[in-house]
Each structure stands twice: as C-alpha cells, then as structure tokens.
C-alpha cells in the first residue's frame, strides 16, 4: 500500500482578510470624500480653472466677442506696453497700493493696540470698528462716498468752514484718488481683528520683564510687540497688497463709472474692464489680466523673500536658543 504524503496546508499564500477589509474601507471613505468634494471640484474646473486656461489662450488672440479669435502672438502685449492709458493705469494703481496699504495697516494696528487693553464696553468698540468691513466695497458704499466728497457736500462744506481747499474731491483730478484711499482706510476692520489675535499671543511676562529693566512704552512696542506679531504683520501686508492691486468696485462707482476725471482713478482693473466690456477687446483685456497675475505673483515672491529679514517665528527663536 502506497502512502501518499499530504502536503501540509499553510496560510502563508493566502492574503489576510484584515488588510483587504481595511483597503476596502479606505476606498469607500475616499469615494465618499470625493463625492462631497465634487461640487467644489466642478465649480473650480468650470468657473476658475477653465476660464483661466481660456483667457490665457485669448491673451494671444484678436478676439472681440463677435468674431472667432485669431492668433496674433504677442501683439496684445506689445500694444499694451506702448499704450499711454495702460501706463497711466499702472501709475495710478501703484500710487494707490503704496499709499493706501501702509496707511490702512497703520490705522488697523493703532486701533488694535487700543482695543487690546481691557476696558468697559470693549466688545462694543470692537464691533463698531469692524462694522465698515462687513459692508465691503459695495456699490451702495461707493454711492455714499461719492455723495460725501462731491461739490457742496459734507466734506466740501467742512473744508470751507476751516478755510481749507474748497471744491468737491470727486471732480478734482488732484484729490479724487485720495478720496478712494480714504474709503479703503475706513474699512480697516479685517486687518484690525487679525492684529488683535496676534497681540493676544504676546506673553505678558515679556512686558513685565522689560518694564523692570526700565523700558518705556515705545521701546516695549519696538522690541517686543513688533517682533512677536511680525508673522501676523506679514500676513496682513501680503493680503492687503494683493487686495489693493485688485481694486475695482469702489474706483468705478466713486468716479461715476468714468475712472476719472482725467483718468485720475484709472486703476488697472478699471482700464481692463473698459477694454474688455466697453470696447469688446477681449484679447487685449485677457493680456492685461495675465500681466496683472504675473505682477501680483512677483510682488508676493518679493514679500516672501523679504520676510526672512524681518519676520520672526516662535520655532526659529526656540531653535536659536
């Protein structure tokens, strides 16, 4: 009788059930996550990524909404760089960014320092100062601002009583841009709240130690407050600079849809709107839009490069110790 030697059955070649079930569970979780994200993904593709890619193509074409786009290469860019009104829009926008952004942040930081002190009615003051930012750069605010700075309006009459310059700011090319800057500064609530959050993170013992050493308020602010909140300051500078380059609604409404007088409030986006939607030069407007994107990206890169010299992070300080 021949004995048949049975091969012992091992489970080494069988895939374990637990990892398979875990993979199936992860797959179902990922599928559920993608389903929840699908509205955002569809919106991003259809409303953001798709139009951006299309505008990049139109930037190199002659396109006026009524005829098929024709490829012209870099003609839109060369024409744009030699356009006097385009150069004027760049000048006005840079002036607005350089003047409005620092003043807005200075006022926001000053008010945040005041509101950081414990006092009666603190919540009411914070809400009152933040309220203008809730309104935003809406059309209604633009109309109100235009009424305030027009001829024989409140600002004009106040200046006349004080013996200062009389005449509406809106109709004066030398003053209308500063009326727009004043509107921007007035809405300092958002950076103020961010500064308040940063001030809350400053350790009180640092102020106590500095006061014991004889440091005054200015010295404590310069040596303790500013270095500690420098990441928050950098964030506000970056955010407000980007917003300033994109200003449109307030400039368009305050200047009575003319971006003037004498192109005094011809900010970059206002000229882009005129070229694209009033003159139907969509190819030229797309070239302007991508030039603005590149300019903002360069400014952002410069700010990120400069932060190494003046922004102090807590982990870097601990590592240095």
Automatic annotation (TrEMBL):
Residues 1-23 are annotated as: Disordered. It is a multi-pass membrane protein. Pfam families: BPD_transp_1 (PF00528). InterPro entries: ABC_transporter_permease, MetI-like, MetI-like_sf. The keyword Disulfide bond does not apply. PROSITE patterns: ABC_TM1 (PS50928). Residues 90-303 form the ABC transmembrane type-1 domain. It is found in: Cell membrane. Residues 7-22 have a biased composition (Low complexity). The chain crosses the membrane at residues 33-60, 94-116, 128-148, 175-199, 220-239, 282-305. Keywords: Cell membrane, Membrane, Transmembrane, Transmembrane helix, Transport. Coiled coil: none annotated. Belongs to the binding-protein-dependent transport system permease family. PANTHER family: ABC TRANSPORTER PERMEASE PROTEIN (PTHR30193), ABC TRANSPORTER PERMEASE PROTEIN YESP-RELATED (PTHR30193:SF1). This is Sugar ABC transporter permease.
